[in-house]
Amino acid sequence: MYTPEIYKNENQEEIKKFLQENSFGILINQTNGKLCATHIPLELDTNKEGKDILCGHVSKENPQWNGFIDNDEILAVFSGPHSYISSSWYDHENVPTWNYIAVHVYGKIKIIEGEAVIESLKKLVDKYEQNSENPVRVEDLSKKTMMQTRGIVAFEIEITEIQATRKLSQNRDEKNHQNIISELEKANTNQSIAIANEMKKCPI
């Protein structure tokens, strides 16, 4: 991912928090000579050796997983808030742009089987059911329902490289930076408010 130095985020704790909060990503690999992509939750975890990994699964009906065996190199893309930035918000002439937060994770994928699959599913369900009024637990599902796990391919991705971009108008002076925040708040969309809040946290 091309990222100018001013927009690079190398704060590992921030990046991990971002991945935990924006875990619905795009898994990209090459299968049968073609690029394939699937939109799925990819959960940040740590393996037995203490290395950072991503965990996930795809349907066996999805041909993408066939490529995991031939080539274990993958790219996972995670997107955060984003918003259009009008150059009319500056006190000088310039071009419009876009502010956004994104993380690209490179790694090596391996298929997991047996109890490791169930443990991965338990963590996934527990994370997203924690605020539910009547939380579902994998442990409580019937054998009949759990037989559906035969229809998935679960995997772990050992992370080899992370590239993180946080483009939040760091190249503007304090006056224009504040103007952009004000205009984003006036726009009052979910994305514009989210980017305005992120800009407030980001020093210029």
UniProtKB/TrEMBL annotation:
<dbReference type="InterPro" id="IPR007396">
    <property type="entry name" value="TR_PAI2-type"/>
</dbReference>
<protein>
    <submittedName>
        <fullName>FMN-binding negative transcriptional regulator</fullName>
    </submittedName>
</protein>
<dbReference type="InterPro" id="IPR012349">
    <property type="entry name" value="Split_barrel_FMN-bd"/>
</dbReference>
<dbReference type="Pfam" id="PF04299">
    <property type="entry name" value="FMN_bind_2"/>
</dbReference>
